[in-house]
Amino acid sequence: MISRLTAGFSSRLPASLSFALFSTTASSSNPSAAQLHRMSVKQFVEDSISNNKVTIFSKSYCPYCRKVKTLFSTNFPDEKPTVIELDERDDGSDIQEYLYQKTGQRTVPNVFVKQQHIGGNDDTTAFHQAGKLAPLIKE
Ligand SMILES: N[C@@H](CCC(=O)N[C@@H](CS)C(=O)NCC(=O)O)C(=O)O
């Protein structure tokens, strides 16, 4: 019932707010295990983005992820991006779902620099080639 009520309402909310709402609607004083899990996924992602200059949500076998890691290691060897390999975590698909709600991007890599969402490998490469990545990293 609650989920039916919130489904229509939350579809008109920004994605991040909608996720937060789903995390807390049933009973904020007694959240379910699933809600607690979603809250911890959200917290993990937000902490990762906040606490690191460069965060790459990745999959270890993904060629685009490899390319974007190489972009950073080649051009910014002093930066050590925080790489979160979603395929190596039990909560990887939940993190990917939260990232989709937050950024509208389903794929990996999903790159953040200085709390700013840059995008995938193509986006990050274009951002770098436009001369925008170095100043953002160095600022
Ligand atoms: N154009 C994208 C392509 C990214 C892409 O296709 N990544 C694949 C993995 S190699 C993906 O995320 N597939 C869906 C999934 O793994 O859930 C980019 O440059 O980042």
From TrEMBL:
Instruction: Write down the EC number.
Output: 1.11.1.9
Looking at the record, the residues that make up the Glutaredoxin domain are: 54-118
The reaction(s) catalysed by this protein are:
1-chloro-2,4-dinitrobenzene + glutathione = 2,4-dinitrophenyl-S-glutathione + chloride + H(+); 2 glutathione + H2O2 = glutathione disulfide + 2 H2O
Protein's UniProt keywords contain Disulfide bond: yes
Q: Tell me the Gene Ontology biological-process terms attached to this UniProt entry.
A: cellular response to oxidative stress
Is Transport found in the keyword set? yes
Q: Which CDD domains match?
A: GRX_GRXh_1_2_like
Q: Which UniProt keywords apply?
A: Disulfide bond, Electron transport, Redox-active center, Transport
Please give an example of a GO cellular component term from this record: cytoplasm
Gene Ontology MF: a single term: glutathione transferase activity
Q: By its UniProt entry, which PANTHER family does this protein fall under?
A: GLUTAREDOXIN 2 (PTHR45694), GLUTAREDOXIN-1-RELATED (PTHR45694:SF18)
NCBIfam families reported in the protein's UniProt record: GRX_euk (TIGR02180)
Question: What name goes with this protein?
Answer: glutathione peroxidase
Tell me the classification of the organism that encodes this protein: Eukaryota, Fungi, Dikarya, Basidiomycota, Agaricomycotina
